[in-house]
Amino acid sequence: MDVVQFLSLDLFLICVLCTCMVPGVGAKDVAYFLAEEEQANFYLGNVAADADLASEATNPADLNSMKYSFLTQSNNNEENSLVSLFHINERQSSLYTAQQLDRENLCEYKDECVLELEVIARSTSGSLYKKIKVSITLLDINDNSPSFSVPSITRDISEGSLTGFYIPIEAAKDADTGNFSIQYYILEPPSSPFTVGYQEFVDGTYSVRIVLDGQLDRETTSSYKVNVIARDGGEPPKTGVLEVIINVLDINDNRPRFNTQMYNVTVNEDVAVNTTITTVFADDPDQGENGRVTYKLSPNQAEKIPTLFTIDESSGDVIIVGSLIYEPGKSYTIIVEASDNALQPLISQSKVFIHVLDVHNNPPEISIDPLSNTEDSEILENAILDTAVAHITIFDPDTGKNGIVNCSVVNSDKFTLQRFAVHEYKVVLSQALNREIKDRYEVTVHCHDIGTPQLNASAMFVVHVMDINDNTPKFTQQQYFVSVQENKSLTSSVMQVAANDFDNGKNAEVMFSLDSEGQKYFRISETSGVITVNSVLDRETVSQISFSVFAADKGSPSLTGSAQVRMIVTDVNDNKPEFMEDTFEYNLEENNHVNINIGVLVANDKDDGNNSQITYSIHPNYHAGIPFAIMPNGSILATQVIDREAKARYDFTVIAEDMGNPSLRNSAHVTVFVLDVNDNNPEFVFPNAHNNTVVISYQTPVNTIVSTVETRDIDEGMNSRVTYFMKDKNFSHIFKLNNLSGRIVLDKALTVADAKKYTFGIIAQDKGTPPRINEIAMSIVVTTQKIGGDVTPPEVNRQYFLIAVAISCVTAVIAIVIILTICLIKRADRIKQRYSETKDNSDGPLGRQETRKKVSFSIDDRAMTTMPGGRSSAHENHLYPEIPAGSIQVSLKNPDRGHESDSGQGSLDSGDRRHHQLTSLQLHHALLTSPSGSKNRSTVSHMSPPLSGLITHQEADNHSDLSGEANTSDSGRGGSDDDLNTSCILSYSGDFDHLAHSPRGKHTPRGSSKSAGKREELFPLPEHDYGQLNHMKPTLAPLSFGDRFFNYESNQGGLSPVKFGGVSPTGNSFILSGNDDSTTTSGSYVLDHEDDYVDVVRPSRQCIV
User: Fold this and answer.
1) Is residue 1029 included in any domain, yes or no?
2) Which range among 43-52, 690-699, 817-826 shows the weakest confidence by mean pLDDT?
3) What are the φ and ψ backbone dihedral angles of 681, each rounded to 5 degrees?
4) Which residue range(s) make up the domain with 116?
């Protein structure tokens, strides 16, 4: 690099340094960039200023007493060694290099060279103390050239190496990094048959090799000298050169070549022994032992030749070792071999013809004309006999007998001479030719005179037999047996056929083809005979393919040969086992024997051998929870006793896996249905050990279903169908049990005398084989009381009670606080006004004819809280509590009478009457504001305490929107069928006028009152304690008891009505429901203190008023 370029680079790096001195992340981190090889004391920057230390000082005076120093760690040797490379001004914080920095020494093998330092800035007079992290990035410059470890190497390569053969060499090294490191390699000169190949690794090193890119011939070029050049990415690039001398090693690829293929030697018969009569020479261009030629006589020749002649192994001199004997018309033929000295030597042969001359006579001279345009004669191999191939002319200067010459063909039985003239002959064909046996004949014509001694001469010419297309191509095998794997990739080779045609030229060029069957699966190369796959082979479809292969030559006409190919397609495990069904279903009786065989899985695999051998197993996901085992042969065994009642069906997955390598598998779903065995007795649901009693009224109609026997049999089918029998026939005339349905029907009309408890046994028997039975005792209590409906089980009552309490609380808060506080106060004012007007009008005659019903109530608080004998309902659990006489007092006032009719308990004063008027209005308003017909009517639970009973008027009102006689879906009635079935209502008859005018001391038609001054129970209760009946679960058919009755349920808190008019009351509060025939609003009453009160009977479990 020249001075200008160096200065330019220096200025560039300084600019980079100035622009890159930026603070690091945070106020105390500083980063600098420095080019390597800078001189010592090179200024980097002011650490305090670059770190903006002034902004960190709370007291500016601290900055005047700052001292700066490097932080050294006793346990960090690497960082401590970096401190020695720099020095910092203790007062000014100027940072300088302490020496020249070499990046390659400091950060060897690193792509980025970052030197980390820590500087402590502390105030000597203040509390300012900061640690500044300084990172110095050392930038690389192209100061190193690529270099090889040695300048020159020598490598050897065989001349027989193929293209692509490579010679690995050591890669160059460059200490620089990035673009300044080695970028690529080149090879010079480019004219050599070599190129350079290289591969870069992750660590930046290279694998370099010299690759052969052409053919080598040592006999042409025995060595090459090339340069491998490594270049980096600098401008200009630096290079490193490795000189490589490549020696081409010889292989024995050349035969020895004689300088002539035939030697003719004529010698006198009197030639001396050990005389060299000729020298043969053969040349071998190979090197070393591969090119050193030795000679010898061929062992395959006449026996007398080795006795007469020998040859020098090194020089090739042919030497006579025996005496020659002249024989007229005969000559000697010696076959000489030239061989190199390689481990596998190559051999060439040549012939030496030795003619022995008679030294006392002139031999004849022979002239041959081949009758062709070439030096040799030619004849078709199908030529007929006596076809001429050459013309012979004899010249003998002698005269007389020495000049008379006779000629003949001495070395061939295929040709003969026919005299054409005195000294002329023609050579004709004497036997049929076959070029495929021999295509070249060396015909020797021998001539001798008849002088004494005879002299002879010989001449040789070559006859080439010309080919005709008379040979059909023949395959090396007439039948080929080949195995090929199925699914072999297309165009892959499976075999190669070969055919020979002994003809020559075009007649011997063969083209291969397949028949139509073979073309379905394969394709054959016309020239090479390589058979490749043309379509996917599937052994499961075709396991054996037989076809013909043809070889046709290019003669005219063309001849074709054929051979048979039998291709066996071998199996590849490419088929999964296939189950006979997707889902297998098996039946197994419960309580089975362990390891019983319940079925066999069947799967098929189209493959062959081990690939088709299948083993079975349960899917691993089901090993833990399935009581079955799968044998390898597919048998399914039950591994434990199975209970159908625990689980009636098992579903799991099974696997069929072949024994191929790798193996293939398939899965199927198995369902095992567990068949029922009659191993369970019927279990009684009702009656049971805790609830086996039903209570009915003696007034229950005949054919009424009084109860239903319910059982449960966890078996299935006929094993779970239960029939019922009454064990004791003593009561069969009273109750009849349906064997199939279990219904108990009242079979006779009951009287009061039949009121007692009937206990009998019930047998439940299933229809299994053998059948299983169960037995239980059941009681039916016939009471004189009328039972209104099914008795709800205690646990259900408790649920209903909790629901009712919750609804009541919410409804009470909303209804009382919002509605009663506002609406009832306003209505009270209106009632007072209407009361005044009514009283004024009642003084006149028209007033006494008013048809409005004026009802007043006088109810004792103790009426619902006291039991007979003084027992409290809060602590006793009775179904039919006694209500003390006189606890409910009702008076009826006759409008025609001007005075009250005393009920015997005293009359109410005006204050009491006003109090009860307000209370009734409050109840009336709660009834009108509740949703009519709803099952969940709000419960009025915070009414006036004195009110503990309710009179409900349910007389038909066809003119009212809120009719008391509406059906269960009518809003005027309120309540659903369920409400009505569980309700007990004290009905107040609409005929109050009739009650008012009826004679005292007699019951009304409904039996709802006595004469004034007397209290008498309408339905006296028996003395029995029916508290335990609350826990029974009787099933009663609907009885015709009418719509007007009370329904009380006994609970832990005492006596409380369950439902009343579709509303669930709480405590001792009830809902007033009535209708007024003279008004358009059902349930609207005007109470007058002058009205009489009707005595109301106490409510009972079943009472009709």
Assistant:
1) no
2) 817-826
3) -75, 150
4) 30-139
